[in-house]
């Protein structure tokens, strides 16, 4: 019996060891995973952080699951990359501002990492901003209307400033900016705007470096409306003008164009845009003094300007010439009642295409921007070799 009891105890010990070994093998776990590391640039507690490089948050050994950045109580827009490891502000940082950051990173099998802190940007010794725009805020314009932005200081770093300009339209359209001087940049669409939509333009200039020691001081936003689609064609050979409204004939007008005895008296052919209008407008003969042959100083009714070289569509009571011959000093004149109608129905940016003369409209004569082929227009962009094709305007 004692021998049997000893064997029983040994058997139980062996079974216990086997169970213990089996239990250790099936439930064994390695060391816990290391938590991810969150890196913020500019680093927390910076007092004079640069503004032109924005704010960047990265997760090492994990992914970012939440990023909250605020400035002045307002959320700061930014976006994650596809791997969800890097978050960047959409735009540059405002000078002399404080940003609060809360970033959470996670990794499977590890506790989450939450990084919280503040970053303060340096102030700018010199700032620049938007000085003027066309269209004006709230204006309703024609389908050919460009967007013109003037700055109050010369821009050296044009690519940085151009990249900060955002155009958002309800109907997406391809467009590009072209610099015409150090203080002016113009946006033209590849094809005319779609009618009856709102367009919002934002210059995210705050913190953008435009030159040595020159930074954008504030952002600027304005919106305008593209109205009905009105286009006009003028044939100086047949002396006729046809106005289309949303593709249908709205008016037919007999006209008289430039007499073409000199270059200045020759109406320019090409795609013009209506620029402004006045009733009346004072028109004085260029380069002539009172008493000189050909001198004139007249007040002209219902005048719609279409170039910077003195061309208007306006009223003139010379019915004997309209529809028959060209006798003007370069303008297009029409019957007073029809000119008044055109004046009343025109919006800035309505296309007016003129044919039949040997004087082409220069692309920089007024708003003759549609005279340039699209690829030529794009060559004036500071981003043409950096960002590739023209900007595709996003849908709201």
From TrEMBL:
Alphabetic keyword roster: Acyltransferase, Cell shape, Cell wall biogenesis/degradation, Lipoprotein, Peptidoglycan synthesis, Signal, Transferase
Gene3D superfamilies per record: 2.60.40.3710, 2.60.40.3780, L,D-transpeptidase catalytic domain-like
Gene Ontology MF terms in the entry: acyltransferase activity; peptidoglycan L,D-transpeptidase activity
Pathway: Cell wall biogenesis; peptidoglycan biosynthesis
Species in which this protein is naturally found: Nonomuraea thailandensis
Protein name as catalogued: Lipoprotein-anchoring transpeptidase ErfK/SrfK
Record-annotated active site: 314 (proton donor/acceptor), 331 (nucleophile)
Cell wall biogenesis/degradation among keywords: yes
Entry keyword annotation includes Iron: no
Family annotation (Pfam families): Big_10, YkuD
GO biological process, one term: regulation of cell shape
Record-annotated L,D-TPase catalytic domain positions: 230-355
GO cellular component, one term: extracellular region
Signal peptide: 1-28
């Amino acid at each position: 019996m004692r021998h049997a009891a000893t064997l029983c105890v040994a058997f139980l010990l062996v079974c216990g060891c086997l169970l213990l070994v089996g239990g250790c093998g099936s439930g064994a776990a390695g060391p816990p995973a290391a938590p991810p590391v969150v890196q913020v640039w500019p680093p927390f507690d910076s007092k004079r952080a640069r503004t032109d490089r924005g704010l960047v948050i990265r997760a090492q050994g994990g992914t970012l699951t939440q990023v909250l950045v605020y400035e002045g109580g307002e959320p700061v827009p930014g976006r994650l990359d596809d791997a969800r490891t890097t978050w960047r502000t959409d735009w540059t940082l405002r000078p002399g501002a404080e940003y609060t950051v809360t970033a959470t990173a996670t990794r499977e099998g590890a506790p989450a990492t939450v990084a919280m802190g503040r970053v303060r940007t340096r102030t700018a010794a010199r700032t620049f901003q938007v000085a003027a725009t066309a269209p004006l805020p709230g204006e309703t314009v024609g389908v050919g209307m460009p967007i013109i932005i003037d700055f109050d200081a010369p821009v050296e770093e044009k690519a940085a400033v151009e990249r900060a300009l955002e155009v958002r339209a309800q109907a997406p359209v391809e467009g590009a900016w072209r610099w015409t001087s150090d203080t002016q940049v113009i946006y033209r669409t590849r094809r005319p705007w779609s009618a009856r939509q709102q367009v919002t333009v934002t210059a995210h200039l705050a913190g953008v470096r435009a030159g040595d020691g020159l930074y954008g001081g504030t952002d600027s936003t304005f919106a305008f409306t593209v109205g009905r689609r009105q286009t006009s064609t003028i044939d100086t050979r047949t002396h006729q003008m046809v106005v289309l409204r949303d593709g249908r004939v709205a008016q037919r007008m007999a006209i008289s164009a430039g007499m073409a005895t000199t270059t200045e008296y020759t109406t320019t052919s090409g795609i013009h845009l209506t620029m402004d209008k006045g009733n009346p407008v004072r028109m004085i003969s260029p380069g002539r003094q009172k008493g000189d042959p050909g001198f004139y100083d007249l007040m002209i009714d219902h005048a719609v300007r279409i170039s910077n070289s003195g061309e208007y569509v306006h009223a003139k009571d010379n019915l004997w010439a309209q529809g028959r011959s060209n006798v003007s000093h370069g303008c297009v004149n029409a019957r007073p009642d029809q000119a008044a109608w055109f004046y009343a129905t025109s919006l800035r940016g309505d296309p007016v295409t003129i044919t039949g003369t040997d004087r082409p409209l220069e692309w920089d004569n007024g708003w003759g921007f549609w005279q340039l082929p699209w690829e030529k227009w794009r060559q004036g962009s500071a981003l043409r070799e950096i960002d590739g094709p023209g900007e595709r305007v996003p849908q709201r």
